[in-house]
Amino acid sequence: MEKIETVSEMLIVSASPHIRATRKTSLAMRVVTIALLPALIFATYLFGLRVLLITIISILFAVGCEALMQRMLGKKITIADGSAILTGLLLAFNLPPGVPWWLPAVGSAFAIIFAKQLFGGLGYNFINPALAGRAFLMASWPSLMTKEWLTPVGGTLSGIDGITTATPLSLLKNPANYGNPEIIIRQLNDFDTIRDIFFGRIGGCIGETSALFLLIGGLFLIFLRIVDYRIVVGYLGSFVLLVWLLPTQGSVLFHLFAGGLLLGAFFMATDWVTSPVTKKGRWIFGIGCGVITVIIRIWGGYPEGVSYSILLMNVFTPLIDRLTKERVFGELSKKGVKK
C-alpha cells in the first residue's frame, strides 16, 4: 500500500512570519546606509575630514575582509549586497573621532571575520558584527576607545564650558572628578545643555552626537517598514520608564538623547539577523535591551550600556524565538488528531 504523505512532509509548515514581499536584502541595506548619511555628514562638519577617513577605512576593511573570507571558504563573493558596507559604517559610528587610523581597520576585520563569516556569513551570525567589533576594541584598547575625543565645532566636549576631558555621560558617571558634583549635575540637566546634546553640539562617538539626525533617519526606516517599530518602542519605552522610576542623577531627556541610545535602538537592535522573528519576541527583545542599558548606566562601571545590552540580547534571541513561536494549526499529530 502506498504511503500517504502528510502536509508537513510535503511542505514546510511553520508559524508566521512568512515571506510576503520580494524586497531584496541589498536594497534594504542601502536604505539603512542612506538613513545614516545625514548623521555622518553632520559628524564630518563637527569633527572635520578625519571622520570621513575613519569611516572609509572601516568600510574598506569590512568589504575587503568579506571578499577575502568568502574566497578562502570557497563561497560566492557577495560584497555587492551592502551588508559589509553597513557593518563598516556602523563600526565607525561607534568609534571616537580621534582614534588612530588602524583601529577601525582592526575592528572591521574582527567584525567580519570572527563575528560574521566564521559563523556562515549573512543570515547565520548570532550577534551584531559591528557591535562585536566595538566590544573587541573596547576590551583590547580601552584607553583609545574612551579618551580619543575631539571638541566639536561650535560646542564643547562635555556640554559644559570649562570641562574638556569628558563626554556628557562620563561626566554624569563621575562628576566629583571634574568639580563640584551638585553644580555639574545641575548644569547637565539644564535646558541649554540638553538642547546642545539633542542637536549635536557635544563630543562623543562619530555616530552618536546628533540625536536629531539619528531620530530622523530612524523614523524614516520605520516609515518604510525596513525596521520593526516593536523593538524600537520596546527599547526606548522601557528605558524611559526605568530612568523615570529609578534613582539617577540625569533627567529622562538627558539619558534619552545622550550617548548611543538612539543609534542602538533604531539601527543596531533592529538588525534582522540577530533579533527575533516573532512579534512578541521583538517586544521582549526591545524591553530587555532597555532594562540592561539602564542597569549598566546606573550601576555598572561603564557610563554607556547600549552596545553590551544589544549583544547580550542577541545571545538570547534563539531562546526568545522558541518561547514565543506561534502555534501551527492544521498539522496531524501522531495519533491522527489535528493540533
UniProtKB/TrEMBL annotation:
User: What is the membrane topology listed in the Swiss-Prot or TrEMBL record?
Assistant: Multi-pass membrane protein
- Keyword RNA-binding appears in the UniProt entry: no
- Which is a Gene Ontology cellular component entry for this protein? plasma membrane
Check the record and name the Pfam families matching this protein.
NQR2_RnfD_RnfE (PF03116)
Top-rank lineage group of the source organism: Bacteria
Q: Where in the cell is it found?
A: Cell membrane
Required co-factor(s) are: FMN
EC number(s): the record gives 7.-.-.-
Keyword terms? Cell membrane, Electron transport, Flavoprotein, FMN, Membrane, Phosphoprotein, Translocase, Transmembrane, Transmembrane helix, Transport
**How is this protein organized at the quaternary level?**
The complex is composed of six subunits: RnfA, RnfB, RnfC, RnfD, RnfE and RnfG.
Known function: Part of a membrane-bound complex that couples electron transfer with translocation of ions across the membrane.
Q: Which HAMAP family match?
A: RsxD_RnfD (MF_00462)
Name of the featured protein: Ion-translocating oxidoreductase complex subunit D
Organism whose genome encodes this protein: candidate division WOR_3 bacterium SM23_42
Taxonomic lineage of the native organism: Bacteria, Bacteria division WOR-3
